[in-house]
């Protein structure tokens, strides 16, 4: 069995280049659900965490969106994740083994209590009683408050509707059981601190070895505090066979010596394939197996490359091009000032409040400076680079703006790849072709023999 930690936070339109503030603050999380991302399609966060998006809705006369939900998956997470299709802008759903997770963002002003309840009621709740020991988790920014259920300071109409629905469905409310009375939203207004509990985590079945924390000492430029729940999965992670992409030092082929060595090796190794083809054509014997010949040809190419230029290991993706040591230092300084501020009392609280504001302004200033610097570097590179490189860069940018469909399976990527290969094999096997085929068309009549053309 393996433990899983799910973290949840409303980031309120975090600058996408500063996504490291989230992943660095929650490094032990398996999954991080971000609500109110304001991220428009096809934008992505510069991080090595795997990411899935229910993109934000466009805002008229603005370069940002509204709402939006993102799932970040830790690269070390051992379970395959299958993202479920949805047409609702309020929900992002995924499935991990027998666990289905639905993350919601329900805006406070655009939805009435009845409309918000209808959205959450539309989600299928799988339980252990009806389908293979299934469990369903619902989490997100519900913007609903309830005094008795959660220990909040007051109850809203949406909170009443949700509490009644939770009782009717027999759901487990982990805020109520593990963090009763602990606020997930903290805001200072007019020298007063306002708190509420609006980020909820529910489930249809009990969770094994469950713990839950509210990370109130993390700032992250959001009034919402990360909500983290940890538990043990019912099933162990599947064993994965590594099928790494094969890479060679192909740039060495520009060198005449390496290129000639590759040619000599390939000519030597391809002789056996030539002999088999010649033997089949000269003796009119049984046609050789085309798949066998293709595999032989591939082996000749691979072994020739191995012995001439050698293989190389893949480089990790350069996704942290924006984040640098200066930003990391300023971020840690801001977070430290925030922790000192909330722990201080008396006059020291005012002192650390001022220091926190200064550190926050300094971090924001460095972010803007880094954005301008990165943009200028990009423009200068396009202007001064060779035309072929500039064209390739622009082409890559245009391609990245297209969201390509992908095929996945609940059983994991290996099962999806096998199903796709089987489908392609059936499609191109030739079984659908008629057994009796038409004769080929006669050769065209030309003034000269084709061999002399």
Automatic annotation (TrEMBL):
MF terms in GO: catalytic activity
Q: Which domain of life is it from?
A: Eukaryota
Q: Where is the Endonuclease/exonuclease/phosphatase domain?
A: 100-227
Recorded hits in Pfam families, A to Z, give: Exo_endo_phos_2
Q: Where is coiled-coil annotated?
A: none
Which Gene3D superfamilies does the protein's record reference?
Endonuclease/exonuclease/phosphatase
Q: Which InterPro entries match?
A: Endo/exonu/phosph_ase_sf, Endo/exonuclease/phosphatase
The name of this protein is: Endonuclease/exonuclease/phosphatase domain-containing protein
Q: Which organism is it from?
A: Circinella minor
């Amino acid at each position: 069995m393996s433990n899983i930690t799910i973290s949840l936070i409303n980031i309120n339109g975090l600058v996408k280049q500063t996504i490291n503030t989230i992943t660095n603050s929650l490094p032990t999380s398996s999954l991080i659900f971000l609500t109110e991302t304001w991220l428009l399609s096809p934008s992505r966060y510069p991080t090595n965490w795997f990411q899935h998006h229910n993109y934000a809705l466009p805002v008229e006369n603005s370069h940002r969106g509204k709402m939006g939900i993102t799932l970040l998956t830790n690269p070390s997470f051992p379970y395959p994740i299958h993202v479920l299709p949805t047409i609702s802008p309020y929900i992002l759903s995924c499935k991990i083994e027998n666990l289905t997770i639905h993350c919601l963002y329900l805006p406070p002003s655009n939805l009435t209590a009845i409309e918000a309840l209808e959205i959450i009621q539309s989600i299928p709740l799988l339980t252990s009683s009806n389908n293979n020991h299934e469990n369903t988790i619902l989490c997100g920014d519900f913007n609903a408050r309830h005094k008795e259920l959660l220990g909040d300071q007051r109850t809203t109409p949406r909170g009443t509707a949700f509490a009644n629905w939770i009782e009717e469905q027999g759901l487990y409310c982990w805020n109520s059981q593990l963090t009763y009375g602990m606020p997930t939203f903290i805001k200072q207004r007019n020298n007063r601190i306002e708190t509420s509990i609006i980020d909820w985590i529910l489930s249809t079945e009990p969770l094994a070895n469950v713990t839950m924390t509210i990370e109130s000492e993390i700032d992250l430029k959001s009034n919402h505090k990360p909500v983290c729940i940890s538990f043990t999965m019912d099933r162990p992670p599947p064993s994965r066979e590594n099928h790494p992409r094969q890479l060679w030092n192909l740039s060495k082929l520009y060198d005449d010596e390496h290129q000639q060595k590759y040619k000599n090796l390939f000519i030597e190794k391809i002789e056996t394939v030539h002999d088999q083809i010649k033997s089949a054509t000269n003796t009119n014997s049984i046609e050789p197996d085309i798949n066998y010949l293709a595999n032989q040809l591939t082996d000749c190419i691979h072994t020739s490359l191995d012995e001439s230029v050698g293989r190389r290991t893949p480089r990790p993706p350069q996704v942290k091009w924006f984040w640098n040591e200066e930003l990391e230092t300023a971020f840690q300084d801001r977070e430290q000032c925030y922790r000192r501020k909330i722990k201080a009392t008396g006059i020291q609280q005012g002192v650390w409040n001022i220091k926190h504001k200064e550190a926050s302004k300094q971090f924001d200033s460095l972010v803007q400076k880094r954005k301008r610097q990165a943009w200028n570097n990009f423009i200068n590179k396009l202007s001064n680079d060779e035309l072929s490189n500039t064209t390739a860069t622009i082409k890559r940018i245009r391609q990245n703006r297209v969201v390509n469909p992908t095929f996945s399976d609940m059983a994991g990527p290996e099962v999806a790849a096998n199903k796709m290969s089987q489908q392609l094999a059936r499609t191109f096997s030739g079984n659908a072709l008629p057994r009796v085929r038409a004769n080929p068309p006669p050769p065209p009549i030309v003034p000269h023999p084709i061999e002399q053309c």
